[in-house]
Each structure stands twice: as C-alpha cells, then as structure tokens.
C-alpha cells in the first residue's frame, strides 16, 4: 500500500459508520531505516475472508444460506457507501478477499485504499486511472477510465457468480473455455434449467432451486452491458433478502457438527 492509498483509507474509514464496514482502530506513520512504514489497525476478524472460505479446500464448505447472508451483509455495506454517504463513495475494489468475516460470519468490507468520491453535481462519472483486480473491473471502466457507482455493481455481480460456482473470477488452471468465469457462465443462463450446471458441487445440491435461480438472475442484471440497466444496491439488498427467504433452510454454520432437517444434511447452526 502506497501513501496515497493509506491516506485514502484513513480518511474514508474515519468518517464511515456501518456494521458491514470494518472499523479502523488506529493508524500511524513511522520513520524506519528502510523508509516510512504506514500502519493501519483494524478490528480483529477471526474468520478471515469470504475468499478463504470459498476457495480454500482446507476449510469446511460454506452452506448456501450462509453464503447468501454473507453477500447480503456486503451488499448492505455497499448500499451505505452508494446511497447514504454524502458525498457518495465508489468502493472500486469489491472482491471476495475484501469481504472479511467476524466471529459470527457477519460480513465487513475492508481495504478502502482505492475508494473514490462519486461524481458531483450533474456529472455521470469520475475519470481516473484504471486500477483494480483483473477479472473484476467493469468493461466500460477498463475501456474509458470512467468510474461510476455502476462500476461497483458489476464487480458485485462477479462475486455473486463466485458464490454460486465456488470458482474464482479467473482460474488459469482450468480448460481454456473455463478460465474466465464470466465467459463460462454465459452458456448457463437463469432462464434455462441448465443454470444448475454452474452450481458449486461442494454444496451437494443442498440449496433451494428457486433461491439459486433468483441469485443467478441478480448476477446477470448486475453484469448488464448497459451500466444504466444495472440495479441499485438497495434493490440488490431486497432481492438477496427474498432469496434467503426462498432458501427454505434453517440458518447453518461452518463451525462444525452435522444435523438432520427435513431429510437434508445441515452443518451446525449459525449464530447471529
């Protein structure tokens, strides 16, 4: 992290206040013989990140409803930045590794070093150098450098597909046609029964068909080529709440223990 990103994060986290944004407890700049050390101290997040739980095969599989509750929390954090903060904030680096998890698997967004104020007055975008993680950035941002609130919506759609599939946005170890997640899922749209082919096999079919289809449709809308057609984060929040209601599952946990419910195996009981 450079000094510019460090200052941005300090300034942003010093003024935000939301349960789904990580708390900044302290910061300092220390002169060191090898240069200036820029330090940040966050609240402790014992369950690491969404990235760890989706892609680290050494950890228990995240149950479907837990995935939805985590991404709902992340959506509520983004909705706060987009629709409550003044001036509005474009997060610009939404990805699964920046969604941290507390002791109860509640989501908190972290790493605000690339955040930017949204466009002022009647402007539609902020023009900036293209930064971010490969595989996540919205196409119009990559092509023009025009950054908007809708750029965050696109990256949210990418992470929705990661939750659905258990695959990273880019995986070079897969066959050529499957290396880029968004290219692969195009063949399995929500309006086709084939969409179940993309579902994470580690879920072992323990999810609601209707709930999963709703999330696929949401991901497709977030990834609309026309940025103006993408939903606002407040709409995303409402849709995810509906998907959770449709899931028809008792809230499970990844902390251990198996229980039987309606003939379906569950993994523990998630604390609130």
Task: Report on this structure.
Its main location: membrane. Residues 255-264 have a biased composition (Polar residues). It is a single-pass membrane protein. By secondary structure, the chain is an alpha+beta fold. The protein has eight helices and ten strands. α3 packs antiparallel against α5 and α3 (64-84) runs antiparallel to α8. The longest helix is centred in the first third of the chain and has 21 residues, at 64-84. The protein starts with a helix and ends in a 5-residue tail after the last strand. The strands form five sheets. The protein has a two-stranded antiparallel sheet with strand order 1-2. A two-stranded antiparallel sheet has the order 3-6. The chain has helices at residues 3-15, 50-55, 64-84, 139-144, 149-165, 181-185, 209-222, 233-246; strands at 24-32, 35-42, 89-90, 99-101, 107-109, 116-117, 126-127, 146-147, 258-261, 264-267. The chain has a single domain (45-265), classed as Transferase(Phosphotransferase) domain 1 (Transferase(Phosphotransferase), domain 1).
Summarize the topology.
Blueprint: H1 3-15, E1 24-32, E2 35-42, H2 50-55, H3 64-84, E3 89-90, E4 99-101, E5 107-109, E6 116-117, E7 126-127, H4 139-144, E8 146-147, H5 149-165, H6 181-185, H7 209-222, H8 233-246, E9 258-261, E10 264-267
Antiparallel strand pairs: 1-2, 3-6, 4-5, 7-8, 9-10
InterPro entries: Kinase-like_dom_sf, Plant_Ser_Thr_Prot_Kinase, Prot_kinase_dom, Ser/Thr_kinase_AS
Domain Protein kinase: 1-244
GO molecular function: ATP binding; protein serine/threonine kinase activity
